[in-house]
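We now fix the convention by which a protein and its fold are recorded. The integers have meaning only within a learned vocabulary of local backbone shapes. The record below shows the convention in full.
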Amino acid sequence: MTPMEVGIAGVLGLIVLIWIGLPIGLSMLAVSFLGVASIRNDAVATRMLGAVANDSLREYLFAVVPLFVLMGLLVTVSGVGKDTFDVFERALKRLRAGLGVATVFSNAVFASITGISIASASVFSRVAVPEMTRHGYSRRFSTGVVAGSSVLGMLIPPSLLMIVYAVLAEQSVGRMFLAGVGPGLLLAVMFSVAIWMLARFNPAFVFDAEETHDDGPGLALGQLAAKALPILSLMLLVLGGLYGGFLNPTEAGAVGAFGALVVAILRRTLDRATFWRLLVETGQITVSVLFLIMAATFFSRMLALSGLPGALADALLSGPIGPWGFLLLYLVLVIVLGCLIDSISIMLILLPIALPVASAAGFDMIWFGVMTVIAVEIGLLTPPFGLSVYTIRSAMDDPDLKLAEIFRGAAPFVLTMIASLGILMVFPQIATWLARL
């Protein structure tokens, strides 16, 4: 077989192995080793595997993964999510469908100190959904809002998907974080507009009964300040240090994890057993992410050795579809794969092939990463995989709540995300201006 044929066979073999249920990391390692051995020989494949393990995981940058994961888990158990919702609930209680908008912006703020969409979905399904249904919102809409706005966790920095993309694309993690701010705010505003339009033009979708407002005494100014202080402090520590240039991403992760630990201790929500469980979970997530990155790096080098990405770039960019046709085809493929497999797996499979094509097309690689993350996150809301939807269904523990009901509630937010992709295609500066400062 020619190197090109080996590369094509490797991609097809990877798809088959994943389809039959072999873990994606092992599938990538097996396909890559066999591919390099076929192009060169077993000795070269063995040496390359060792070099990949050394080159891809020794960077100081990778310390950011466990730190941000630990910070997100600590924030989740400390009750910061509920406090965030309480603050926005009081601020927006007079707005029509204000609790839906409050859920969106609570998720946006919570995302800025967690970076994990599933954590947002789990927290706000317990906090926001009961409050919204008590005020007359439909359960379909309430769960849909939580599912839709949870995707902000992987776009607004810190973001685990941004870190994975930065590593695979050899871009600055700090710049990727900065690039997520504008699109994250755009998506939050677009979600809020979509909620207002639904409440205005299709109230039967939003409300089961007439919307009620709580006219009770509410929270005093001092209580609101006490609830907002931990949120603002963590945001100032992490984002202020990162964007102000005082901290690099790894240092920001360390400061954020320590700050979240202090908050959890002061609130007495962290005992020894819980802390140990969080440390173990952090280790499991970190090891799985780093193993996948190593496997994806090996797969990328095997493809480069085969010459497949270069040939694909020439064929696509010189053909009738051109650069923008490639981008549309790529985004559609990402969204379709999101219906079947998880977010990180999609990036690890497609990016080694797509990145050389995107670079040859002259696309800004920071902007291309933001587009990729948004398209990948759509998969969290679409059947049959829809990980955020399954997380909400599990967290609610309501036997009468059907998955189809949550998927229907999330559908307007899927359409809103697709519209946001279109806006970012027309105005890429939304993603790049801050990262280029």
Notes: Residues 272-306 form the longest helix (35 residues). Residues 184 and 401 are 29 Å apart (CA to CA).
